[in-house]
Structures are given as C-alpha cells and as structure tokens.
C-alpha cells in the first residue's frame, strides 16, 4: 500500500542519512545494511521485482562475506575489506542485475504474445508463459540468471556460515556473543527473504495450485512487503550503534 511504502521510504531515508553523517557507521557492515535499505525502497516503491530480488541476494551474500572475513580472518580484515573493494563489490551487485534485466527485456521483446492473463503482477516469467513462440533462449537465460543471482549467492552463504559457527564454538564466550550479535540478524533476514522468495517463485511457476485467490495474492505480495519492513526492525534493534542513533533521532524530534 501507499502508506506502508511511504513508511519504509522514511525509515530507509533516516538510515542512509545518519550513516552518511555518522563516522562510527562508516564500516563495510553498516554500508551494506544501508544498501539493503535502499534496495528495499527501490524494489517496493518501483516494483522492479527481478532486479530487487537479485540485488537483495547479492547484498546478503556480501554481508555473509563480510562476516566470514571478520570472524574467520580477523587479522586480514582491513586488508581484504578495503573501501575500494567494498565499493567495487557493491557496484557489481547493482550493475549486474540491471544488465540481466536489460537482456531479459530484449529477449522478451521478440516474443509473440498469445494471452493476456497475468498472475498477480507482470514479471519476466509471466511474459514468457504468455508467449506461443520459441522461448528456448528465454528459458536458458532465466536458468543462467537464477544460477548467478540466486543459487551462487545462496551456496556461498551456506558455505560461509558453517565455518563461522565452527570458529565461534572454538572461541571465548565474549567472542561468540559479539559474533552472534552480528550474524543472527543476517540469518533472520536471509531466512525471511528466502521463504518469501520461495513463495513467489512457487506461485508464479505453478499457478495451477489449488489455493484461494486471496491467499495466493498475500503469499505473492509478501515477497515485496514483509522483508523491507522486517529489515530495519531487525538491524535497528540488534545493533547497539544503530539502536543508539534511532533513540537519538526520536529524542531530537520531540
């Protein structure tokens, strides 16, 4: 809805604004959190579904990489996660999905449409399903796109977190507490987005599932609404530095 979108835009604007002016938040982890907030506004306000999902997956992968380096290679962290490296990784995470979206648009433009019934909203796979022409190239590109923007990021996350947990189990109680404080919010966000994405993909691929139309719409739109609302709440409440700034904003606004 318009109200929820406006609310998310205000929350994200505050997050980005105070990250820009607060020097203590100029670290890769907080930069990536800001990117996550910007992407939430980008996806829900403009309904740019494919690039939004791809950006979210790659940003979550970069966050997992940041935690992996910080916990498993702490002495090399500053040498690996330099401002230049972080900037390049973030640029790639935004530019690559846009390129994929452009290629998908070019491939779809040559298709002949034989139907006009869409499932909830218009996106790439829905257009392919409406075509009665040769869609082999489109299907191959969809598979390639899903591999690079969904499967590969998820595989890296699944690779990194067991290693993080092994290091934490061998470390001191204080180290484990600090590690869990930064990793658990990321895992919560990842699980929430993965479930939402699974619901959307399942419904768009198998529209013949015997589900009430209202439930189908809710499950499909949950992918666009719940993650952007949950992200600032999870990170805002779990990170002391961000929580302090939020309290400061509330006090200053009175």
TrEMBL record:
- GO MF terms on file? odorant binding; olfactory receptor activity
Could you tell me which residue ranges the G-protein coupled receptors family 1 profile domain spans? Answer: 59-235
Keywords assigned: Membrane, Transducer, Transmembrane, Transmembrane helix
Localization = Membrane
Q: Which GO terms describe its cellular component?
A: membrane
Q: How does it sit in the membrane?
A: Multi-pass membrane protein
User: What is the official name of this protein in its record?
Assistant: G-protein coupled receptors family 1 profile domain-containing protein
Organism per entry: Sinocyclocheilus rhinocerous
Organism phylogeny: Eukaryota, Metazoa, Chordata, Craniata, Vertebrata
